[in-house]
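Quick one, T. Sequence first:
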Amino acid sequence: MTEKYDVTVAGAGPAGLACALSLAKAGWRVAVIDPAPETVLASPSFDGREIALTHHSRDWLEQNEVWDRIPAGSVSPLITARIETGQEAPANNSAALLFRAPQEKSDALGYLVPNHLIRTALYETVREENRITILSGKGVVASSGNRDEAITLLDDGRLISSSLLVAADGRFSRIRQMRGIGAIVHDFGKEILVCRMRHPEPHDGVALQWFDEGQTIALLPVADDGLPGHLSSLVLTLDPEEIAILKAMDKDAFDADITRRTQSRLGSMSLESARCTYPLKTVFAHRFETTRLALIGDAAVGMHPITAHGFNLGLRGQEILCEEIARGEGDPGAASVLRGFEKRHRRATAPLFAATNGIASLYTHDAKPSLALRKAGLAIAEKLTPLKSLVTGFLMDRDHAA
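Structure tokens:
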């Protein structure tokens, strides 16, 4: 027996759920497929990731009745972004590149929100939409498309027929591979450890990105109802062997090690969460579409975490897809619709992907010429007001047009 829907979305992560919600609100009947059981989708566990939402992304979440489902006490305004390089913490701001929101527009560059809370809020919203059917605990084993329909075979033997299949199944997308779409995969040969750390000194809403020699450290301000300003998300990039050692350390040894690595900037650090690790690989698909198939989220573009903008690009990708569908003539999987989506989304992501990888490669290479270039680059950029205004506008994404 074949089940029929207008659109099938494979992957119930943030991009997939957002896409399903957008499509349903436009009147389409949508099936969402994910191998995770419903209990996991409804209440995802802490994964260490803090998402830097732009103003545009927050507006989308508000307009689609998702934002109010996120606990207000878990939202941390990002007041300042600070970028440094070198082993020694600068005594003043002369060696740091600073970005702040223009006072006439906003008091925040963006908003840091735990990834698992965004996923929970999206799932709760999607579950209440009667045009969406969630097929949890089901995997995709085969996918094909022809002139008239997309066919998806599930691991329980069911066939799903729809006008369009949207792959939102992550940066190592099986559906992308099934359909013969290659990808540029940049393996940095590093791993990332993320966790929450408590500290006695306040973070003052500052997000620090520190390209130290031999390691990259990010400290992101995390909201905390109990003691505001004294909890940060640590994002530490190291060789896999070092990450494995850190993950296996007992708490006291780990606290001491992180305090040393951060040079006691915020005082003695104390672990407050699970330690989560991820391989550092970026992905850019050769194509974002083929017959009756569109790629969104990390299946299309898996960004380096240096920008903390992966979620925002995933959200924007599904917006572009839904806008192109709305411009079409009633067939969400029409070739003209998918070509329009491909063109716009590639234009929005390719320059950023290339620039981010280039910057990350330069600022994590510790040869002496690179170290000197890194320091000189930050000093010059700090004095270029037009450049800083341009980057600030990108970080905030307040008046977006694509």
